[in-house]
């Protein structure tokens, strides 16, 4: 009787919880105690351009709506990213092995053989030469074959940029419980990585569907609903990849010494990206601003000419980006480097 009251009350949303969410609720916990459901596990390695990350998930399938409910998540990362080991793939695989050991700590030993394991590499490997990227993937495949997890020939791969956007969009809306209702409730996802950036949302304006190139529209199934999602990935517009290209403007191709109008003339520093270390400094012909120290003395301070730097950045970004008008009407979730930079500068 108690279970019936709990279920009916939750179903009609008259109790302060609902079974139609991603998280475990009271009904699921009661069912778990009674032995009506059990945990399942999954491990994902996200081989990004600036770091490799392991995510170990603990789920159960709800006895009420048959959807997966998230119980626990492990997140650990190691730096640098896998692509930094392009010339030493064995060392790169060792970094992935470190992450697998952390995943083992949260999964019962008896369940390891039933726990699917996959590694998806993103823009860092997409930007590498094919033979170097394949060398890294092959070393990880060898590692996976010796692991106790459940793997197959498709467990290690490079993720397509559009799929990267779709997965991030799905994850955000799943965690915020935006599925199952009006399509306008779903959020747009802006994912700023190190090597690429993705823009993903569910268009509801017919003009968007009519004006968008077919390759940017993806037809997927989300919780028993067939939906059309706009997903566009921009390789080279990740924070680090774009920085490298912008700093390279005006320099000899493949030079490791980068002089840029976007760097203050007093700066002379080292910066590493993609396994290469660059010497970064201001332009050879610096700009100065005169400032009065007192009534009779003027001092010159080195500056970056904002307008000149903005032209360089705009020229690089604008030649790549598609701008769907409907995106302006969407509630947006921006994450990855968007979050990191906003936090660093006190915006959030």
Automatic annotation (TrEMBL):
Enzyme class at the top of the EC tree: hydrolase
UniProt EC number: 3.6.1.6
Protein residues bound to ATP: 194-198
Keyword ATP-binding among record annotations: yes
Molecular function via GO: ATP binding; nucleoside diphosphate phosphatase activity
Keywords noted in UniProt: ATP-binding, Hydrolase, Nucleotide-binding
Record-linked Pfam families: GDA1_CD39
Active site: 164 (proton acceptor)
Protein family (similarity comment): Belongs to the GDA1/CD39 NTPase family.
Protein name: nucleoside diphosphate phosphatase
């Amino acid at each position: 009787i108690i279970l019936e009251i709990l279920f009916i009350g939750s179903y009609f949303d008259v109790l302060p919880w609902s079974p139609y969410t991603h998280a475990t609720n009271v009904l699921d916990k009661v069912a778990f105690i009674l032995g009506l459901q059990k945990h399942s596990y999954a491990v994902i390695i996200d081989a990004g351009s600036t770091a490799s990350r392991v995510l170990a998930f603990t789920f159960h399938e709800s006895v009420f709506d048959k959807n997966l409910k998230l119980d626990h998540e492990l997140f650990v990362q190691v730096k640098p990213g896998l692509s930094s080991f392009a010339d030493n793939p064995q060392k790169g695989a060792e970094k992935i092995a470190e992450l697998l050991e952390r995943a083992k700590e949260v999964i019962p030993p008896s369940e390891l053989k039933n726990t699917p394991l996959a590694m998806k590499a993103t823009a860092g490997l997409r930007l590498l030469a094919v033979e170097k990227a394949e060398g890294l993937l092959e070393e990880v495949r060898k590692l996976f074959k010796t692991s106790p997890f459940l793997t197959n020939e498709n467990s290690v791969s490079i993720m397509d940029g559009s799929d990267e956007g779709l997965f991030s969009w799905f994850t955000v809306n799943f965690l915020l419980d935006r599925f199952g209702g009006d399509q306008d409730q779903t959020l747009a996802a802006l994912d700023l990585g190190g090597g690429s950036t993705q823009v993903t949302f569910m268009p509801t304006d017919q003009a968007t569907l009519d004006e968008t190139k077919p390759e940017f529209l993806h037809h997927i199934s989300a919780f028993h609903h067939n939906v059309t999602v706009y997903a566009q990935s921009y390789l080279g517009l990740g924070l680090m990849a774009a920085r490298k290209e912008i700093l390279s403007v005006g320099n000899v191709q493949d030079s490791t010494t980068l002089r840029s109008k976007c760097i203050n003339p007093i700066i002379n520093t080292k910066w590493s990206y993609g396994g290469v270390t660059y010497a970064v400094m201001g332009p050879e012909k610096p700009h100065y601003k005169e400032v009065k120290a007192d009534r009779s003395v003027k001092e010159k301070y080195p500056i970056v000419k904002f307008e000149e730097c903005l032209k360089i950045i705009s020229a690089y970004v604008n030649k790549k980006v598609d701008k769907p008008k409907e995106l302006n009407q969407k509630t947006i979730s921006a994450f990855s480097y968007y979050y990191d930079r906003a936090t660093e500068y006190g915006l959030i």
